Amino acid sequence: MELVVILISSVLINNFVLVQFLGICPFLGVSGKLDSAWSMGIAVTFVMALTAVVCWPIYHLILLPSKLDFLQIIVFILVIACLVQFVEMFIRKTAPPLYNAMGIYLPLITTNCAILGFILISVLRNYGYLETIVYGVGSGLGFTLALVIMAGIREELRFADIPKPMQGPGITLLIASIMALAFSGFAGLI
Amino acid sequence: MNQQTSLTWEFLKGLWKDNPNLVQLLGMCPMLAVTNQVSNAIGMGSAIIFVIVFSAAMISLIRRIIPGQVRIAVYIVIVASFVTMADRYLAAFFPDLSKSLGPFVPLIVVNCIILGRIEAFSAKNTVGRSMLDALGMGLGYTIGMLIMGTVREVLGSGTWLGMTVLSPSWYDPIMVFILPAGAFITLGTLISVSRLVQGKMNGK
Prior knowledge:
The complex is a heterodimer.
Chain A: H1 2-13, H2 24-29, H3 34-63, H4 72-94, H5 96-102, H6 106-109, H7 113-124, H8 129-157, H9 169-184
Helix pairs in contact in A: 1-8, 3-4, 3-7, 3-8, 4-5, 4-7, 7-8, 8-9
Chain B: H1 7-12, H2 28-33, H3 38-61, H4 71-93, H5 95-101, H6 112-122, H7 127-157, E1 159-160, E2 163-164, H8 180-203
Antiparallel strand pairs in B: 1-2
């Protein structure tokens, strides 16, 4: 039950992009086309789940017992960077079609603050192993959801007559604010 | 305007022409997340200025010894060390501020404005020049956050830095401005306005 609550709250109530403001750069940058939004979302979810699987044992079994937890920022970012590199090489060798779909987004993920943010938050909240993994998957799905909705709206928007200074980021942010308002309606869900 | 070489220009370009958050659209996450109060914006801004100036200085000092292929990893480790210092310092001396900034201080590591400036500027220029550039960018970033913080705090809770500006007796705070949605509205409007002004200036 606990796990279901974590999942729902990370996808809908505390949506990573719209409520916690993590991963705004790809949200603004990759939301132009629907299929690239899907690929980016799936890549992020995948890396988040992997990060949870790898970083939790490192933090709880190595850093914490040896009182090195102040090194968490450096260790996490290095682990994520290596992980992303490794996943990229692995996919390129074993599944070329998948690589073509999400390959170019993988290097961008290292500097996606949603990944580092999610693992820092789950350490802060003292989540267990399973909870961290569920939280990672949920956050990734929430990110994908926001990204895909935004991409769908922006595809329709291409034919709209928008005042020049508002084109691009201006109008995207205003749409995001309406989406954030809509998502705050989920707050009563649990 | 086109004295690309003057030192003042290296400093000033971060404030308006290449303003990191209004023009280059880099580092948007803290910009949106911590600007519900002016005090948070100031704290975050100072942390970013500290990290960006010292990482820029450090990296331009050792720029000739860093091997090309692993440069990004080296940058990240250096930036992460300074971020850890800032994070520990805030947690020790400003525990309240550190708590309300939450994970956003550690997240300075992956703030694209810092890696972006290092890769684009510090890795190619002298120490003094890089520090000026970094200081300008950091200040430009902080000013952007201050404007957002001011708009959101004044409209959203009627105060500025904790002082009452709009008296609650006649002003009903517009709650939405301290909610996430208000952050998006404010930033969207701010970017649109700055583009409008920039367009007018170029049109002359």
